[in-house]
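Cross-posting from the chemistry board since nobody answered there.

I work mostly on the small-molecule side, so proteins are not my area. We synthesized S-adenosylmethionine and want a rough idea of how it might sit in this target. Sequence and SMILES are below. Is it possible to get a predicted 3D structure of the two together?
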Amino acid sequence: MKDFIITTSQSLTPDLENTALKLSEELNVPYINRNKKSLTQITNNPFVLVVTRQKLILKTPSGDFFFHPNMAQLRIKNLREGKKDFMVEAAALKKGDSFIDCTLGLGSDALVASYVTGREGEVVGIESIPVIALLTEMGFLQYPWPNERMRITAKHIKVMRMNHLEFLRTLPDRSFDVVYFDPMFRIPISTSKGISPLREICDANPMNFEAIIEAKRIARKRVVLKETRYSPEFERLGFDHFIGGTYSDFGYGYISIKEEI
Ligand SMILES: C[S@@+](CC[C@H](N)C(=O)[O-])C[C@H]1O[C@@H](n2cnc3c(N)ncnc32)[C@H](O)[C@@H]1O
């Protein structure tokens, strides 16, 4: 992740300044007083985290990056209408299950998992880039959700700011039902235009094989990997089942733990 600075929107209030100062300390990133100036007047760093009344926005050269549920709300609506979701199917996810999202990003998949597993379930989302984890964690709490069920679904997700391998190593055998990975695709899907702000700031390292070994030790039901349809990653990492839409560029590989033990 590139270095960045923190400031507030131009209309500064004591509350916004306090939040920006707190985040600057928490993330160990310099705070610059906005003083009613434009961003280019206060810094020449193109990466700026702006604290506004509604949300946190990370300015990057490829555009603004902020929390948004993306496809999660539509996927949840589809599930409510009895349609299937390939991630949920690959994970064989049910109410009451526990789910670790090892690559949280902006948390769309974690939201879907939290909706399916419900109040009795547990969803932990791990993100190694602290500013992404922060945007998502705050977004889960601050986003104007359309209803109480979505608000609770988002609030129920526990966010961890760390590398997933470090976290997985601390967990006991068979302690979560599903361990899920959605790393940045090794070869980005060509229809996506330009570099997305996420690609510019995320951890784009290839999956570490050790994380899969740990995931197989921890999972009770399934380990799931999202990748492009014909990705050699599935074979390299030992995913022997595949689920995906006929016309979709990506899909989900899974390892069924019951078949392995
Ligand atoms: C493709 S995005 C995930 C998108 C997410 N599934 C969603 O629904 O929004 C991949 C995310 O995983 C994070 N990541 C990559 N390697 C990681 C690791 N070893 N530990 C934790 N997070 C990681 C990246 O920084 C990035 O934010």
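Reply from a structural biologist on the board:
Welcome over. Reading the output above for you: The pocket of S-adenosylmethionine is lined by residues 103, 105-109, 126-129, 132, 163-165, 182-184, 202-203, 205 (CB under 6 Å). The chain has a mean pLDDT of 95. Happy to explain the token format if needed.
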